[in-house]
């Protein structure tokens, strides 16, 4: 049986110990980033703009990846949850700004609601350290 060293990565969210989750978990070369939103004590960062929320989410995900020793270039799978599928083009464009050349596997789905009514987007992803595309 293969054994992996586990590293839990916290964002400092008050919900992590209450709900019992980590922003990300690294197990060996694998990094799993939990569903991430643009939530803040003052409401969603980006307000009612799904693309602005997505940009904030990718800032947060980027920080988690860095703490895990990974990067966006090593992402192999991405999942986008939208409360309104009409926001797909706007959020997809933000996703494309980051992943246009990387092209991880992607699913985007509409959901009935997220954890708070002002949250429009939630994104989670998986990375494998060492899976970055070669540079030329």
TrEMBL record:
Organism superkingdom: Bacteria
Pfam families listed in its UniProt record: Ribonuc_L-PSP
Alphabetical list of Gene3D superfamilies matching this protein: RutC-like
Annotated InterPro entries: RutC-like_sf, YjgF/YER057c/UK114
Protein name: RidA family protein
Organism: Cryobacterium adonitolivorans
């Amino acid at each position: 049986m293969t054994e992996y060293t586990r590293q839990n990565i916290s964002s400092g969210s008050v919900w992590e110990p209450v709900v019992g989750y980590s922003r990300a978990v690294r197990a060996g070369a694998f990094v799993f980033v939990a569903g991430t939103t643009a939530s803040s004590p003052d409401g969603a960062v980006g307000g009612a703009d799904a693309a602005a929320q997505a940009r904030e989410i990718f800032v947060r995900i980027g920080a988690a990846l860095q703490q895990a020793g990974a990067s966006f270039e090593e992402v192999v799978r991405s999942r986008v949850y939208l409360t309104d599928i009409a926001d797909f083009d706007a959020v997809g464009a933000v996703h494309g700004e980051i992943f246009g050349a990387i092209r991880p596997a992607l699913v985007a789905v509409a959901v009935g609601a997220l954890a708070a009514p002002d949250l429009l987007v939630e994104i989670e992803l998986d990375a494998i350290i060492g899976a970055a595309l070669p540079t030329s």
